[in-house]
Amino acid sequence: MLKGINLTLLMGPAVASPVPQWALDALVSVRVTTTAGKRSGFELSFDVKNDSPLQTLFLLTGGSVPPVLRTIIVVTINGTPDVIMDGVVTNHQITQGSQPGHSTLTLTGEDLSAVMDWLDLSGIPYPCLPPEGRVGLMLLKYMFLGVIPKVIPSVLIDVPIPIERIPTQRGTDLAYINYLADLVGYVFYIDPGPSPGMSFAYWGPDIKFGEVQPALNLDMDALSNVESLSFRFDKDKAVLPVVVIQNQETHVPIPIPIPPITPLNPPLGAIMPIPNKLEWISETAKYNPVQGALIGMAKASQMADAVSGTGSLDVLRYGRVLKARKLVGVRGVGMAYDGLYYVKSVTHNIKRGEYKQTFELTRNGLVSTLQQIPV
Fold first, then answer.
1. Domain limits, CATH 2.40.30, in the chain
2. For the segment 64-99, what is each residue's pLDDT rounded down to a tens digit?
3. Angle between the 173-183 and 131-140 helix axes, to the nearest 10 degrees?
4. β-pairing, 366-368 with 269-271?
5. Residue 155's pLDDT is what?
6. In angstroms, how far is CA 112 from the centroid of its own chain?
7. Which residue, of 1, 63, 126, 337, has the fewest CB within 10 Å?
8. Minimal CA–CA distance to 246: which of 288, 294, 183?
9. What class does CATH assign to 5-115?
10. Sign of torsion, CA 47 52 53 57?
11. CB 215 within 8 A of CB 373
12. Which range among 48-52, 174-178, 298-302 has the greatest average pLDDT?
């Protein structure tokens, strides 16, 4: 691997361990994609010789992989390790190689949330448990994989009375967790690390503030650390959510428009487009105005990103791994687009002698709200 960058690959059934050197020597490329709102995925490509132990293992297993082939990918940059994937293999393929006597083994997979989507457990009762209690209880069964629940209580402290109703699960654990998250405007994802074999299962609001990663610099001579970076402004992406609640006495529906700027979605741009579309949120009708407004605020944070950017960088030049679902600064693009952005998506592309990332950035307006951008 590159000077200053090392790759560690761990694989195994349920519990992953470092792969032998001959398997690491056969590794050609690694691709990992992390996107807000979606599962993370990975792809490993191996150059397999006809007499390779990988070919023998593939034949002995009948061309299949174990039911749970745990895969952990760790990159170490200048002595600092980062777990960029902790998941399971979901598919594999062998194709003819570019040289005689060689073939290419490609393993594809997803993060550990894939395991939560295997069994349909519809009908399991959860008496006297609010949504966050149900989510926490479902996640406990995956602690053997090193998954640690990180559940943020919602504004809906709705504890069902058993003599009135007992909530039951709908579908797989993952489907039901996502259903409960959508009810209160939350998100759910698996965040690998910080140590190999450990992951956090986050169920909570989509937060767009906090730690800022080192700035992405364009056209700044020696300070430039990106290979390409471009932006676009689409005012049609700005949507105004309208929460509908119901008067408990008259049963008259009351619409409450939710502004695009909320505590969960602070202004990253000073000039924001005027929403020209409405999105009605009717499932809040049975809640009181405060609960309905708070749910609307959580949903509004996902509907106001009119500015988007795409780019690529060399990790060795950037000096660290750019991470999704966090903020990052941008400099050198111009007054309209400089400032802080939310990293919506990151794709890692690792080959021998090369480690690059492509990324997608979003924010809710033009012109930076900061006079100085963190470097």
1. 5-115
2. 555 678 999 999 998 889 999 999 999 888 887 677
3. 160
4. antiparallel
5. 66
6. 12
7. 63
8. 288
9. mainly beta
10. positive
11. yes
12. 174-178
